[in-house]
């Protein structure tokens, strides 16, 4: 029995060895192909990830440039708005100052005209009073008239 067992073991060992050799020979080819495919998949995934990273970096750079341009445009618009505000402010101040100057001029003209009119009325009243006085005075009217006319001329020259 010992021999039978030894024979069986030897034949099983030989069979197992043959099986291992066959498996190694064919399995190595199959496993090698699987490993090559897996390696290729990993390589493709890495390349795709690398391409996505490059694309994301490029998009980030573009977005940052656009952000920068937008900030510059905002600053330019703010500067233009400030300049426009200053120009409009200066324009309205100038308009207000011109209106005030015109109002002052018109007021002075009105005051001057009113003053001339009052002076004219006073002269007229004085002339009327002088004529009335001359009519009531028995003295020579031409002397009184001359005296009042010279007084009126003096006042008139003084008021101008």
Name the features.
160 residues; mainly alpha; 2 helices
- Counted beta strands: 0
Structural class: mainly alpha
- What is the average per-residue confidence, as pLDDT, rounded to a whole number? 85
Tell me the overall shape.
rod-shaped
Q: Please provide the ordered H/E string of secondary-structure elements.
A: HH
Structural overview:
With 160 residues, the protein is mainly alpha-helical. The chain has one domain (1-135). Helices cover 96% and strands 0% of the residues. It has two helices and no strands. It has helices spanning 2-136, 141-159.
In short:
By secondary structure, the protein is mostly helical.
Topology, element by element:
Layout: H1 2-136, H2 141-159
């Amino acid at each position: 029995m010992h021999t039978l067992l030894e024979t069986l073991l030897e034949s099983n060992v030989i069979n197992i060895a043959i099986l291992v050799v066959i498996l190694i020979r064919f399995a190595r080819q199959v496993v090698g192909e699987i490993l090559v495919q897996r390696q290729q998949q990993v390589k493709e995934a890495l390349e795709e990830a690398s391409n996505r990273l490059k694309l994301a970096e490029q998009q980030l750079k573009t977005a940052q440039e656009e952000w920068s341009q937008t900030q510059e445009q905002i600053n330019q618009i703010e500067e233009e708005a400030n300049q426009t505000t200053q120009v409009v402010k200066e324009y309205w101040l100038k308009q207000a100052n011109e209106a005030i100057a015109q109002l002052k001029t018109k007021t002075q003209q009105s005051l001057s005209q009113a003053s001339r009119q009052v002076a004219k009325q006073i002269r007229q009243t004085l002339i009327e009073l002088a004529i009335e006085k001359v009519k009531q005075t028995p003295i020579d009217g031409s002397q009184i008239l001359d005296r009042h006319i010279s007084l009126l001329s003096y006042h008139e020259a003084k008021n101008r």
